[in-house]
Structure of DDE Tnp4 domain-containing protein:
Amino acid sequence: MEAGGQKDQLWVISDASFQILDVVAQSGGSTHEFRIFNESRVKEQFEQDEFGPFILLGDGGYGVQKYLLTPLRNPETQQEQMYNTSHKKTHNVIERCLGCWKGRFRCLTKNIGTSLRTAKNIIVACAVLHNLAVIWKEELEDIYFEEEADNGNGQHEEIMTEEKGHIFRQQFIQQHF
């Protein structure tokens, strides 16, 4: 999404019903999603255990945390492979949510043509209206999808991980797979 010729970086959390739970729009397309998350109120809330047993799924660009599960770079066991498959299928919800959101509001697929501040307000307003459409079960005629980005070689890389996150992820795999 662009505003005034500058690419915005979006960071979005959605639930399984495609409702947008949090959206952050920042200027500068080179800002890494993990950095946006690291500076977010949501991260602080997860660290203070305000969300109880809920967890986030992130791609390999995020560091694994006790509340943020990422795919394993090199799964070795069948359990780990099943975990990665489940993670990929479940994480796909955000891609589909973004596709529905952009399908409803085509202005999000191109240069909005306003100041960055106005563009951010438009993005948040579109998120609110999208949520109302989800609640009211409004149908989409067609959906816009983007391909999931990776690091160019088909694999995701883990960065800035936390030991507790690795331990939690292994326990999660053992318990659920």
In short: The first strand starts at residue 2 and ends at 3. Residues 49 and 62 are 19 Å apart (CA to CA). Helices lie at 33-38, 41-47, 78-104, 116-135, 163-176.
